[in-house]
Write a structure and sequence with these properties.
- With 205 residues, the chain is mainly β.
- The chain has a single domain, classed as sav2460 like domains (Lipoxygenase-1, Sandwich), CATH 2.60.60.30.
- Helices cover 2% and strands 41% of the residues.
- The strands form three sheets. It has a seven-stranded mixed beta sheet with strand order 1-13-12-3-10-9-8, with no helix packed on it. A six-stranded antiparallel beta sheet has the order 2-15-14-11-4-7.
- A hairpin with a 4-residue loop joins strand 5 and strand 6.
- The protein starts with a strand and ends with a helix.
Length: 205
């Protein structure tokens, strides 16, 4: 298992080539464990974004796969309907969240279907946020958090563990899935944010 570090200028990023020959589908899972018996909640989010070389940008609310963007959690402003099993997806079906999980030692997954994105979508930033059951809402409250990428058949392609460098943050971009002429690849990023999810979105809109 690899450990992510914060972005450092000039250092090359080791990218993971994704095998999409089996229906161009794979699953990204974030799993976490809390220390001292706490019941903190970690959520996974993803964006259908376009990157023309000046950073990933998302222009429509329906391209934001987040529990904050569901009609169930945000009846006034959310745009994504939630299915009976708790799952929700972007309209084109490129991103499917299998459902919000709030439990100790929990995990949440996003299923990516690389055949269902618009041509303009060439980057999928992946984020995690923490909601601590207490006054301190940072990843200092999480004993361990990992992100795993698996192909449609279940074979694990890569796994990354969040390092202690992110303890001061409450939002972390684990990485991005990017499309180029050779197909899709996963690039670990390791970028911490302080603020709420809207503060993060401001940097991608």
């Amino acid at each position: 298992m690899l450990t992510l570090s914060l972005e450092k200028s000039g250092e090359p990023v080791q990218k993971l080539q994704l095998s999409l020959t089996k229906g161009a589908r794979f699953t990204i899972t974030v799993a976490w464990e809390c220390g001292h018996g706490h019941l903190h909640d970690v959520d996974i989010h993803a964006l259908e974004a376009s990157n023309d070389g000046n950073g990933a940008k998302v222009g429509k609310l329906e391209n934001i796969l987040s529990t904050y963007n569901t009609k169930k959690m945000n009846p006034k402003a959310g745009v994504l309907p939630v299915n009976a099993d708790g799952s929700f997806a972007t309209p084109g079906g490129g991103l499917l969240h299998t459902g919000d999980r709030r439990s100790q030692g929990g995990s949440e997954s996003i299923i990516v279907d690389g055949t269902q994105f618009a041509d303009a979508v060439n980057e999928i930033p992946i984020f995690t946020t923490i909601h601590a059951a207490g006054e301190v809402e940072t990843f200092e409250e999480i004993e361990m958090a990992t992100i795993t990428i698996a192909e449609d058949g279940g074979k694990e392609l890569g796994s990354y563990r969040l390092s202690d460098e992110f303890k001061e943050f409450n939002v972390v971009q684990f990485g991005s899935i990017m499309r180029n002429d050779k197909g899709w690849e996963y690039a670990p990023v390791g970028r911490g944010f302080k603020g709420n999810f809207n503060d993060v979105l401001a940097q991608f809109t």
